Inverse folding.
């Protein structure tokens, strides 16, 4: 839940109160306010935009509900394919440093009905929002099941806490390790089970893992309204193609027409024309730049919109998507 008094575009100054290692290659950053004001409230599934010093803006899920200390906590994986985000953050940012972040935003919130049953799937670093969801569901005494998958135990954050819960009798928590015994491997069909009106599935992790979970759920008859996911990154960077055709953007408020060439994104064309387009991931993952479409048919290339939302053709991500029609009219 976004705090109602703080815009998601508000920039906040925070201090790195602590930097801890959560697993091999994964650091946890605990962030506290620089001023005396409390940080905005949030619910499970929320993330922040973090301005990496001297680098890009990246999104990180909040992995723990705010406790008495009021800190935000994020987990950062050292990505060997980093484009200047995670590696720079892990190597250069230490306890005591000051960072700029956004207020939390939440595109991955839990369904609110009290009698819903939730099934949570996490792959690798995708545990960060899922771990927070498990905390919130447990605190609200709502039924859930958690499946956490990873390659090795040493590379899985929070695994000790989850295994302690398992040994303490929590039969709804399951840890699956690729190099572990065969009887603990994930059986996706069995874990997902048959759909029902009160069951919701949430998944986060690498694209291949998420695609497998979602495809299996669809095969079992689940509908899209009960499937919820959050991608951390596109499988491949979004790049312009020689097959891309130019198209026009009409600004509804002024009638101004902007041409988007084959060599640029719609967001780039809008920025060059003087329009303030909020950008963050630039891969169609985070939803930051989502723009309302009033006329025309977008060519969706994002990972954020659901199939139903794409079929409506009333929104698109200018950072990566293009147009099937010669012109799009945008609500700008």
């Amino acid at each position: 839940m976004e705090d109602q008094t703080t815009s998601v575009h508000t920039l906040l100054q925070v201090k790195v109160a602590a930097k801890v290692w959560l697993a091999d290659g994964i650091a946890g950053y605990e962030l506290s306010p620089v001023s005396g004001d409390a940080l905005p409230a949030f619910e499970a599934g929320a993330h922040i935009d973090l301005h990496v010093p001297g680098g890009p803006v990246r999104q990180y899920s909040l992995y723990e509900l705010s406790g008495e200390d009021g800190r935000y906590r994020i987990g950062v994986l050292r990505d060997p394919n980093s484009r200047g985000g995670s590696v720079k953050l892990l190597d250069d940012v230490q306890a005591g440093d000051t960072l700029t972040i956004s207020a939390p935003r939440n595109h991955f919130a839990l369904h609110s009905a009290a009698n819903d049953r939730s099934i949570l799937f996490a792959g690798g670093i995708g545990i960060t929002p899922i771990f927070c969801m498990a905390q919130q569901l447990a605190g609200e005494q709502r039924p859930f099941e958690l499946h956490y998958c990873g390659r090795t135990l040493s590379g899985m954050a929070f695994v000790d806490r989850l295994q302690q819960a398992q040994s303490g009798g929590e039969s709804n928590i399951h840890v699956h390790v690729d190099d572990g015994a065969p009887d603990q491997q994930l059986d996706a069909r069995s874990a997902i089970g048959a759909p029902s009106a009160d069951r919701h599935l949430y998944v986060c992790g690498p694209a291949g893992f998420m695609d497998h979970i979602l495809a299996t759920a669809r095969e079992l008859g689940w509908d899209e309204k009960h499937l919820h996911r959050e991608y951390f990154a596109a499988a491949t960077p979004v790049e312009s193609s020689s097959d891309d055709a130019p198209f026009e953007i009409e600004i509804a408020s002024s009638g101004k027409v902007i041409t988007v060439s084959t060599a640029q994104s719609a967001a780039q064309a809008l920025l060059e024309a003087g329009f303030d387009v909020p950008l963050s991931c630039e891969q169609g993952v985070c939803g930051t730049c989502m723009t309302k479409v009033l006329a025309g048919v977008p060519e969706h290339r994002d990972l954020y919109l659901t199939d139903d939302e794409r079929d409506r053709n009333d929104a698109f991500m200018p950072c990566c998507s293009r147009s099937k029609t010669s012109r799009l009219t945008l609500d700008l």
About this structure: The domain at 11-102 is CATH 2.40.30.10 (Elongation Factor Tu (Ef-tu); domain 3). The longest helix spans residues 127-139. The first strand starts at residue 11 and ends at 23. The CA atoms of residues 118 and 144 lie 5 Å apart.
